[in-house]
Amino acid sequence: DIQMTQSPSSLSASVGDRVTITCRASQSISSYLNWYQQKPGKAPKLLIYAASSSQSGVPSRFSGSGSGTDFTLAISSLQPEDFATYYCQQNYNTPRTFGQGTTLEIK
Amino acid sequence: QVQLQESGPGLVKPSETLSLTCTVSGGSISSGSSYWSWIRQPPGKGLEWIGYIYYSGSTNYNASLKSRVTLSVDTSKNQFSLKLRSVTAADTAVYYCARDLGVTAGFDPWGQGALVTVSS
């Protein structure tokens, strides 16, 4: 199975900050990497697919980059509604696997 | 737009079978571009992919659960289902169904999730 490792596991930031979350795959997954946002008690929501393509309706402050084994999710100017847990997930093969999550908290 | 909704018992006894159904609305489960997945999340923990099924009935399971899982599809009802046998407390989780649009896309949309507790 491909292991997905996110860093950091948690992050404190303020409204208006720019933050980045990284995701590393245990082997090359080309650009088959997706990012999700999950709020408490809710299902995950797809933000970014194929490493850098934004899902329809996702604010432009969210962006993704990377290929191979190293990927980044960036949020350019944090808004109050962005405080949540973020997961990366690989689609390169099965089993589909997720990172352990990064919890973004208000400083 | 496509919406998914899980349904099934919220409490299952140890050693019994967990059964959930996902109803797809706003689109056809027989869409050739879609796979239909189950994903679970134990309380306070991360996400685990269980497997997917295609409308034709072909399946792909996570090896970690393969011996206990069966996915099935009912195209006439626009539904797909999960059965997980011989459950233990470790199977307590929120179970989500989701559409998988293949390698170049992600899971979207998701159902709201169904909490299943394994307890006597």
Structure classification of chain B? mainly beta
Rg calc of chain B = 13 Å
The biggest sheet of chain A amounts to: 7 strands, mixed
Q: Strand content of the residues of chain B, in percent?
A: over 45%
Give me the Rg of chain A, rounded.
13 Å
Order of helices and strands of chain B: EEEEEEEEEEE
Multimerization state: heterodimer
Measured between the Cα atoms of the first and last residue of chain B, the distance is 39 Å
Treating each run of at least 4 consecutive H or I residues as one helix, how many helices of chain A?
Answer: 0
> How much helicity do the residues of chain B have?
under 10%
Give the end-to-end Cα distance of chain A, rounded to a whole number of Å.
Answer: 36 Å
Number of strands of chain A: 11
Indicate the overall shape of chain A.
globular
Mean pLDDT of chain A: 97
Taken from the alpha-carbon principal axes, the silhouette of chain B is globular
Q: Could you list the spans of chain B in which at least 5 consecutive residues all have pLDDT below 50?
A: none
Largest interface: A-B, 24 and 23 residues
Secondary structural class of chain A: mainly beta
Chain-averaged pLDDT of chain B: 96
Sequence of secondary-structure elements of chain A: EEEEEEEEEEE
Overview in brief:
Chain A has 107 residues and is an all-beta fold. Chain A contains no helices and eleven strands. Chain B is 0% helix and 50% strand.
List key phrases describing it:
heterodimer; A: 107 residues; 7-stranded mixed beta sheet; 4-stranded antiparallel beta sheet; 11 strands; globular; B: 120 residues; mainly beta
What report would you give on this structure?
The complex is a heterodimer of chains A (107) and B (120). Chain A has strands at 4-7, 10-13, 19-25, 33-38, 45-49, 53-54, 62-67, 70-75, 85-90, 97-98, 102-106. By secondary structure, chain A is mainly β. In chain A, the strands form 2 sheets. In chain A, strands 2, 4, 5, 6, 9, 10 and 11 form a 7-stranded mixed β-sheet that branches. In chain A, a hairpin with a 2-residue loop joins strand 7 and strand 8. The termini of chain A are far apart. The mean pLDDT of chain A is 97. Chain B is mainly β. In chain B, the strands form 2 sheets. In chain B, strands 2, 4, 5, 6, 9, 10 and 11 form a 7-stranded mixed β-sheet that branches. Chain B has a 4-stranded antiparallel β-sheet with strand order 1-3-8-7, with no helix packed on it. The N and C termini of chain B lie far apart (39 Å). The chains are: A mainly beta (107), B mainly beta (120). Chains A and B meet through strand 5 and strand 10 of A and strand 9 and strand 10 of B.
